[in-house]
Specification:
The protein is α/β, with parallel strands linked by helices and about 425 residues long. The protein has helices at about 1-20, 25-35, 45-55, 75-80, 100-120, 130-140, 160-165, 200-210, 220-230, 255-265, 275, 280-295, 305-320, 330-340, 370-380, 385-415; strands at about 40-45, 85-90, 125, 145-150, 170-175, 215, 235, 265-270, 345-350. Helix content is about 50%, strand content about 10%. The longest helix is centred in the last third of the chain and has 31 residues, at about 385-415.
Length: about 425
């Protein structure tokens, strides 16, 4: 009898160990991690979404809950709180096709909009420029609000304009957006410079001196390599994925991930379907080709000059070729791959919410969903310490290192 009880006790203990953690266990772990570490998203395009969809109202509209708005925003205060967000880099993107002086004017308006939102909701947001600012805001229960200028064309080839953005609180500059500019090649345009020009290298050096993050999302691989060669400080990819999982030029190759590890930087993983899923990327290319096949005036297309017929045929094609499903799990795959190749100290989150036309994975539809991603990684065996690194500690470390380089540059210039 004693032996039977002993066997049953051992078996029960084994079952207890093997039993999967409950949802409450994961919830509690996420709560503990994010109470100590601010969850920081490297890229959110809400300012541009507001500009496009509420041009005059954007200065006054209530942002507490706009989830039911026909514009289908991914972001508002209620959902930011549900998502336990502790810090946000707000993108101040403007169209890279505008003339340079117009890009500057619109960038200044976008910076003003971010500051206006923070000023209207001081109980929710706090402007932040340094890692210490972020930690103070988080401790006070506010969402640290940082500014990212998403395109080198927005400085109009002038370092004085870059310095002005820095003085206004901008925390990073993305070296290019979707098109190649006079001094840097984009990932999604024909190369002209084989990376950075000498002026482009000067931009990187000036970013180091100013204590601004060098952001390599959107740039060509040659530009990535040049920037990593020139910079004295760690870099970021504010919203990019692993090219080994999806061979999109916006993503980061394993070779560059190893350089990021050596540099001490961080790759903040993007949620946009075309950058997450290779199947979706290929379907998207087929969709574009079908549009052209049906109607490409003035000379091409099976239904050329017949837009209504072309539209009907295109709807038939869509019905026969539905978009592949993209999931939260695939985003976790990118995070794990970057952590495997570059190291867990070099991965973060950069959703691209409100910047991708709602082409977002199932389970990651808006800013309330960050805990779901963290819990998925916990189910895969991630420790609380590694979750904290992913959530915010990695980018805070990078910010501190960038600030230290800038301080050293100032000290050297004074001596």
């Amino acid at each position: 009898m004693k032996m039977t009880r002993l066997v049953l006790t051992v078996l029960a203990a084994g079952l207890a160990v093997a039993a999967p953690a409950s949802a409450q266990d994961y919830d509690a772990r996420v709560d503990r991690v994010l109470a100590e570490t601010p969850l920081i998203d490297g890229h959110n395009d809400l300012p541009e979404m507001l500009r496009e969809n509420a041009p005059d109202k954007r200065w006054t509209m209530d942002l507490q809950d706009i989830s039911a708005d026909p514009a289908q925003y991914n972001t508002d205060i209620r959902r930011l709180r549900e998502g336990k967000v502790g810090g946000q880099f707000w993108s101040v993107w403007v169209s890279p096709t505008l003339p340079g002086d117009e890009q500057v004017i619109e960038t200044l308006e976008q910076i003003d909009l971010v500051k206006s939102i923070v000023a209207r909701y001081p109980e929710t947001f706090a402007l932040a420029r340094t890692a210490a600012d972020v930690r103070r805001a988080h401790k006070a229960g506010r969402i640290a609000s940082m500014i990212g200028v998403e395109g080198g064309g927005q400085i109009d080839g002038n370092l004085s304009i870059l310095r002005t953005y820095a003085a206004l609180g901008a925390g990073y500059l993305t070296l290019t957006h979707s098109i190649t500019i006079d001094w840097a090649d984009s990932a999604t345009d024909n190369p002209q410079h084989d990376g950075l020009t000498p002026f482009g290298e000067d931009v990187v050096r000036e970013l180091n001196r100013l204590g601004m993050l060098v952001d390599l999302s959107h740039v060509s691989e040659a530009t990535m390599r040049d920037a990593l060669r020139v910079t004295k400080a760690p870099i970021i990819f504010s919203h990019s994925n692993a090219r080994a999982l999806n061979d999109h030029p916006r993503n980061v190759s394993d070779e560059v991930l190893k350089l990021v590890r050596e540099n001490g930087g961080v790759v903040m993983v993007n949620y946009a379907d075309p950058y997450v899923s290779d199947a979706f990327r290929r379907w998207s290319a087929d969709r574009g080709a079908e549009r052209t096949r049906l109607n490409a005036p003035p000379y091409g297309g099976l239904a050329i000059g017949q837009p209504e017929k072309a539209a009907a045929l295109f709807e038939e094609w869509l019905a026969a070729h539905p978009a592949p499903k993209v999931t939260l799990s695939e985003v976790a795959d990118h995070i794990e791959h970057i952590a495997k190749v570059a190291g867990v100290d070099h991965v973060g989150i950069g959703s691209d919410f409100d910047g991708v036309g709602n082409q977002l994975p199932e389970g990651l539809e808006d800013v309330s969903t960050y805990p779901a991603l963290l819990k998925e990684l916990m189910r895969r065996g991630w420790s609380d310490g590694d979750i904290a690194k992913l959530a915010g500690e990695n980018v805070l470390r990078v910010m501190e290192a960038v600030e230290a380089v800038a301080a050293q540059e100032r000290a050297e210039n004074r001596s």
